[in-house]
TrEMBL record:
Its main location: membrane. Keywords: Cell membrane, Membrane, Transmembrane, Transmembrane helix, Transport. Belongs to the binding-protein-dependent transport system permease family. The chain crosses the membrane at residues 12-34, 73-97, 109-128, 140-160, 181-203, 254-274. Pfam families: BPD_transp_1. It is a multi-pass membrane protein. InterPro entries: MetI-like, MetI-like_sf. Residues 73-271 form the ABC transmembrane type-1 domain. This is L-arabinose transport system permease protein AraQ. It comes from Paenibacillus konkukensis.
Length: 289
């Protein structure tokens, strides 16, 4: 179908606006990457913009040999993978019955669930609850409290409600129980929305910070964002003891830039693999209320 002049203009404006919005997000990241590969003198003199100045990998050589940083990296990998898997399991198990018309009190249950989006638990009772459950200074305190996101559950529930009931009725006539219907019919048909929600959960767990501040005391259990905070605030914790001698090709500025990129890029690499599902899943999950 041939586009009208107005449609072409609208499309061109969209491309320009979205391109400009993308640049506002990409340029700071690219600049930080350039700083991490620049000399300390150029970084401190604010000479770096898009390309490195006096290229050097000294900051990265030092960062990649920091054992405490790698320990926090693997802690974050663990809570992101385990947390996402458990969150998806419990979110799907919650969304499925709430999408069924035979569940007579589904509207009342949904009302109570939606209330949690408006009124969050106060911080002190939240902390006391976690303490009484014995999860202080445990990685489970970073996973279990955020196991189900109401927003994500509503997206999956809405998608499930759009699946034809005839498929479920046919499966029941063939002797399938609810678990087989969920895992063999609903989930294979829901790949776009599942990929989208999985990405939401993974990003949330990767960026875990507030719960780590509240519940984790052992530095060996700090996730990556906590370690990044320590490096950004306490410069002496990231610099070598003899840095003042001036024999290194890096300083606090370039090391901080390298650490920020180290903590940011891994989760960004997940997006290209889920991109084809992302927009489709988000839209399909919002069609039917």
């Amino acid at each position: 179908m041939k586009q009208t002049w107005g449609e072409k203009t609208f499309g061109a404006i969209n491309v320009v606006l979205l391109g400009a919005a993308s640049l506002t997000m990409l340029i700071p990241l690219i600049q930080m990457l350039a700083v991490s590969f620049s000399s300390p003198y150029a970084a401190d003199a604010k000479q770096v913009f898009i390309l490195p100045v006096e290229f050097t990998t000294a900051a990265w050589d030092y960062i990649l040999h920091k054992q405490d940083l790698w320990r926090s990296f693997w802690v974050t990998i663990y809570i992101s993978v385990v947390g996402t898997l458990l969150s998806m399991l419990f979110t799907v198990m919650t969304a499925y019955p709430l999408a069924q018309q035979v569940f007579l009190i589904r509207k009342q249950v949904m009302l109570f669930i939606v209330i949690t989006m408006i009124f969050n638990a106060p911080m002190i009772p939240f902390f006391l609850t976690i303490r009484e459950l014995g999860m202080l200074n445990s990685l489970w305190s970073l996973i279990i409290p955020g196991l189900i996101s109401t927003f994500n559950m509503i997206i999956i529930r809405t998608f499930f409600m759009g699946i034809p009931q005839e498929l479920e009725e046919s499966a029941k006539m063939d002797g399938c129980n609810d678990f087989r219907i969920l895992f063999q019919i609903y989930l294979p048909l829901s790949k776009p929305v599942l990929a989208t929600v999985s990405l939401f959960y993974a990003v949330g767990y990767w960026n875990t910070f507030q719960r780590a501040v509240l519940f984790i005391r052992d530095a060996k259990l700090w996730p990556l964002q906590m370690k990044l905070r320590e490096y950004l605030i306490n410069t002496e914790d990231i610099l070598p003891i003899n840095q003042m001698v001036g024999t290194f090709d890096f300083n606090a500025t370039t090391l901080k830039a390298a650490t920020i990129i180290f903590a940011t890029v891994p989760i960004l690499l997940v997006y290209p693999y889920l991109q084809k599902y992302f927009v489709k899943g988000a839209l399909l999950g919002s069609v039917k209320g």
